[in-house]
Amino acid sequence: MTANTTDRAFSPAKQEEAQQKFGTAGVAPMDRPSAVTRFFMNIVAKAEKLNLKCAKLGNPPVYDNKAFPWAAEVEKAYPAIRAELERVLVRKSELPNFQDISSDVKTISTDQGWKTFFLLAFGMKSEQNIAQCPETWKAVQAIPGLKTAMFSIFEPGKHLPAHRGPYNGVLRMHLGMIVPEPRDKIAIRVNDQICHWSEGKVLIFDDAYEHEAWNHSDKTRVVLFVDFVKPMRFPGNFVNWLLMNIALFTPFIREGLDNHKEWEKRFYAQAEALRNRPQS
Predict the structure, then answer these.
(1) Which residues contact 54 (CB under 8 A, 6 or more apart)?
(2) In this predicted model, what pLDDT tens digit does every residue of 232-256 receive, in sequence order?
(3) How far is CA 82 from the centre of its chain?
(4) Please, are residues 260 and 122 in contact by the beta-carbon 8 Å criterion?
(5) Do 196 and 48 form a contact (C-beta atoms < 8 A)?
(6) Region for 122 from its dihedrals, namely left if φ exceeds 0, alpha if ψ lies in -120 to 50, beta otherwise
(7) Each residue of 2-55: pLDDT tens digit?
(8) Would you say the C-alpha torsion 127, 133, 134, 140 has a positive or negative sign?
(9) Contacts of residue 124, Cβ cutoff 8 Å, sequence gap at least 6
């Protein structure tokens, strides 16, 4: 099945057919030596079942954009966001690989093909990156329950294998930024639906379904990647809020935030050194 990023509606019958699985065959979970982290992950597994029952918009793999009125506003900001992205890509070779920030990603990506530029991670801001992309930051502020915002950069030939996200209390938005031709060589599969990005168009999906993504073209693909809180009824919304706030104190998230801070220091120190270099 092929889905466009625009005007795609899903019937209740289709929603009922899709089933979320709590793991991906062939992808081993990260080793969690911390007893605190293991305890937290057990709670997460129980909360995920509650989230499925309390979801206001059902649990389809891919959503109709019309369910999210803010999506059209984000699309309108595309030209300004694209201009800021072009400036970021001037130093693309210095951007971190995703697994250099989040060690969990090593289960699905270990090469140099997936680079990132974070504005927000798990609710924690990167003030210096935001200063480079004020219009992008302004645009994502329109998204209720914003948790993560970054540019996701797939180099030519990158294929991210089938996997599922760590928690179904969030949904994911991609805004197509740079989508080379031929478009049929660049796609994401969510459950049994294959979606193709379009520049300036939003795609909203649930990454708790098995999904994989690929760039089989010879050019770079970029999307604005956002995670936001899944709309839910009580008590799911309360439990979700509680877990997301507790998650900030778990070792694997703290590690990711610390890794990003270290990269940020190096990245901006190098930029400052170049600015202060004596002119010959």
Answers:
(1) 232, 233, 234, 235, 236, 237
(2) 999 999 999 999 998 888 887 889 9
(3) 17
(4) no
(5) no
(6) left
(7) 444 433 434 333 444 467 775 545 445 445 556 666 777 788 999 999 999 999
(8) negative
(9) 248, 257
